[in-house]
Design goal:
With 372 residues, the chain is mainly alpha-helical. The protein folds into three domains: 167 residues, no CATH class; 92 residues, no CATH class; 77 residues, no CATH class. 50% of the residues lie in helices and 6% in strands.
C-alpha cells in the first residue's frame, strides 16, 4: 500500500481546505519554523470557527483567536488540555509573527503535537463516530527538494483565503465551490513540484498566463523569443522586460516604451512568452526528476552532458561548419564542451553567429552523445 504523501491526508474527507493547509504546515516545519508557527494559528482558528458554527454560538468577523478560545471555554466546550494547547499555539504564533529571534525546530515540533491534540479533539467530538484518526507521528525532514519559504507562504495564503471564504456567508455557495475546485486542482492535489506554484498572472486582452514561482525573476533571453527578439532588445535598452518580474501584469501597451512598435508586437510577445513558460516547466521537471545531472538546452530540446561528452575539445577537428563560433569560444577561454553555457542560445550573442549556427553545434553534440 502506498504511504500517504502527508500526515493529515485523512482530513480530506472532512475538509480538503483544512487538509491542504495542514499539509503546507507540515512542509514548513523544517523549512521555516517561523512560517509554521505563524500559520498554525490560522489553522486552529478555523477549526474553532467550525466548532462555533456547529454549536450555533455568536461569532463576529472581527473576533480574534483569543476571543474564540474564551467563548468556547466559558460555554463549557473546551477541556483544559485543549484550551491550553490552543493558547500555546496562539502565543507562540504571535511571537513568530512579531519577534525577530530565531525559532527552533523543537518549537515547531511541540506546536505540531498541539495541532494534533486539537485536530483529534475536533474529529472525535464533531465528526461521525466511525471516523478514525491515526496515532500521532513526528514529521520527518524532507530529503527531496523542498519548497522555498516564499513559495510556502504563497501557498498557505491562497489556501487560507479559500478556507475562510468557504465558511463565510458573504459569498454565493456556487462561487465558493468553483474557487475550491480550481484551487484544489492547482495546488490541492499535490501534483506540483516545488517551484510550480502560481506566483502571479499576466494578461493580454482576454488571454491569461500563470507565472510559476521558479520563473518569478527569470531572465528573458531575447534569443528565446524568435519573433520578438529585436523588440525585447529594444525594451531592454529602456530597462523594460529584461526579467519576468519587470513585466507588467497586463502586456497591452508594452510597445509604448519603444518607438516604431505596435500592438501586434505585444501580442506576439505574449504568445511566445506562453511557449517560453511551457519549455521552462519541462526543463524544471527534468532537473527535478534527474537531480545531479547536467543538461544543455536548445529551444524545446535538451541533451544530457556525460563525462565523456564534457571532455571533448571545442575545435574544428571535432566540430565542422562553425569555425567562427569555435574561434570566439576559444578566445573566451571555452576550450571544452563542459565549459559551454547550459542555455546554448546564449551563444547567438557572438559576432556573426546566428541561431542556425548554434543549432549546428547542438546537433553535433547530440550525435556525439549518441555515439557513446
Amino acid at each position: 500500500m502506498e504511504k500517504p504523501s502527508y500526515f493529515y491526508h485523512f482530513l480530506e474527507a472532512i475538509s480538503k481546505e483544512l487538509a491542504f493547509v495542514a499539509r503546507e504546515l507540515e512542509n514548513s516545519i523544517f523549512t521555516s519554523p517561523r512560517t509554521m508557527l505563524t500559520h498554525a494559528r490560522v489553522f486552529v482558528e478555523n477549526i474553532l470557527q467550525k466548532v462555533i458554527q456547529a454549536e450555533k454560538l455568536p461569532d463576529e468577523s472581527w473576533t480574534n483567536l483569543k476571543d474564540r478560545i474564551d467563548l468556547l471555554n466559558q460555554n463549557g466546550y473546551l477541556i483544559s488540555e485543549i484550551r491550553d494547547a490552543l493558547h500555546r499555539i496562539r502565543q507562540i504564533g504571535n511571537q513568530a509573527a512579531h519577534d525577530t529571534r530565531m525559532f527552533r525546530y523543537s518549537e515547531t515540533l511541540l506546536c505540531w503535537e498541539d495541532v494534533y491534540r486539537i485536530v483529534k479533539w475536533y474529529v472525535e467530538v464533531y465528526q461521525p463516530v466511525d471516523f478514525s484518526i491515526p496515532d500521532y507521528q513526528d514529521p520527518s525532514p524532507q530529503m527531496k527538494q523542498s519548497y522555498e519559504i516564499t513559495e510556502i507562504e504563497e501557498r498557505l495564503k491562497t489556501l487560507e483565503k479559500l478556507l475562510i471564504a468557504s465558511m463565510e456567508g458573504s459569498k454565493e455557495e456556487s462561487e465558493v465551490k468553483l474557487e475550491t475546485a480550481a484551487t484544489q486542482e492547482k495546488i490541492g492535489a499535490e501534483v506540483e513540484p516545488p517551484g510550480f506554484t502560481t506566483i502571479r498572472t499576466i494578461t493580454y486582452k482576454d488571454k491569461k498566463l500563470e507565472i510559476p514561482y521558479f520563473l518569478r525573476d527569470a531572465f528573458l533571453l531575447p534569443q528565446r523569443f524568435p519573433s520578438s527578439e529585436t523588440f525585447l532588445i529594444r525594451l531592454g535598452a529602456e530597462q523594460q522586460a529584461r526579467i519576468m518580474s519587470e513585466l507588467p501584469n497586463n502586456l497591452e501597451g508594452l510597445h509604448n516604451h519603444v518607438k516604431r512598435y505596435n500592438e501586434k508586437h505585444d501580442e506576439n510577445f505574449f504568445d511566445e512568452l506562453k511557449i517560453f513558460i511551457e519549455e521552462e516547466k519541462i526543463r524544471r521537471q527534468l532537473t527535478i526528476d534527474r537531480p545531479g545531472e547536467l543538461f544543455y538546452f536548445f529551444k524545446a530540446d535538451h541533451l544530457v552532458v556525460t563525462e565523456e561528452l564534457s571532455k571533448i575539445p571545442l575545435t574544428t577537428a571535432e566540430f565542422n561548419g562553425i569555425p567562427n563560433l569555435l574561434r570566439q569560444l576559444n578566445e573566451d577561454q571555452m576550450d571544452r564542451v563542459a565549459q559551454l553555457p547550459k542555455e546554448l542560445l546564449i551563444l547567438a550573442k557572438y559576432d556573426k553567429v546566428g541561431i542556425g549556427t548554434v543549432e549546428k553545434l547542438f546537433d553535433q553534440l547530440k550525435k556525439k552523445q549518441q555515439s557513446y
